[in-house]
Amino acid sequence: MDDRELLKEAAKARAFSYSPYSDFAVGAALLAKSGKVYTGCNVENAAFTPGNCAERTAVFKAVSEGEKEFEAVAIVGGKNGTKPRSVYPCGVCRQVLCEFVDAESFRVITGEPDGEMTAITFDTLLPLSFGPKSL
Ligand SMILES: [Zn+2]
Fold this sequence. Notes:
Elements: H1 3-14, E1 24-32, E2 37-41, H2 54-64, E3 70-79, E4 85-86, H3 91-98, E5 107-111, E6 117-121, H4 122-125
Parallel strand pairs: 3-5
Antiparallel strand pairs: 1-2, 1-3, 3-4, 5-6
The site of zinc ion (ZN) has 7 residues, from helix 2 and helix 3.
C-alpha cells in the first residue's frame, strides 16, 4: 500500500471518530510490516481523561493482534464535518509509536487525501527520544 492509499484509509477511519467534546475528528492508518493496515479514530469520554487518540487506537489494535513491526502511519484530522487535513501526533502518541518503530525509516504521513501530502521519518517527529534502546 502506498502513502496516498494509507492516507485515504486514515480519512475513512476518521469517519468513526467519537469526538463530541473537542469536535475534532482524527483518523489514523498504521501499516504493519506484514502488509496489514490497522486503523483508528479518536474516542473521547465525558470524563475527558479516559479518551484515546486515533494513533494509539491503531497501535493498540495492531499490538493486541500480534503485530509489533510497522512501516508507516497516516494521520488526518479536522473539525467534525470538515474535510480531513494535516495533523501530527500528540506527544503521548509519539512516545507510544517510539516503542515499536525504527525511527530512521518509519514514515509519518499526513495531508489531504486528495491534495497536498507530506511524509517525514519518525526521527524528525521525535528527536532525542527515550525508547527501548535507551534502557
Ligand atoms: Zn495522541
